[in-house]
Outer membrane protein beta-barrel domain-containing protein (Chryseobacterium paridis), 165 residues
Amino acid sequence: MKKLLLLGAFAFLGSAVHAQEGFKLGGHIGIPVADASDVSSFTLGVDASYMWNITKGLDLGVASGYSHFFGKDNFDDFGFIPVAVSGKYKFSGAPIFVGLDLGYAISVKDGLDGGFYAQPKFGYQMSKGELYIGYQSISNRRDYGWYRSSWTIGAVNIGYNFFLK
């Protein structure tokens, strides 16, 4: 199932790269928080999204990318590929925006499940790109009847996305 979701995400983003209308590509760096702060020292990642303008100031689209968490204290590195719906609202008369990505994060490490993905953002928009601060959250809750498992991996990120038109 993971491979099928991955293939679908990359196929969609590949077609978006070809069209290049509304396509954004960038990267982020962050500090792990929540359960991730116990096992990771920092995170690096790439962001990709394709947005459509719905109405003045409001864009909706799809987002994906990759976030790599670097392990600390004898913990292994791990990473996630989010597949999300993305929304962005640009305030009239000011170069600032708020955004939200919601979806599922696919784990690329064996033995670690994926989970619900959410990333609210606040940023500054320029003519060729956008600078943002965001809180990336991946949460998983499993109820096996006799055993419950719950964790949240989070990171406070700063990132920059280039507009490719």
Summary: Residues 2-19 form the longest helix (18 residues).
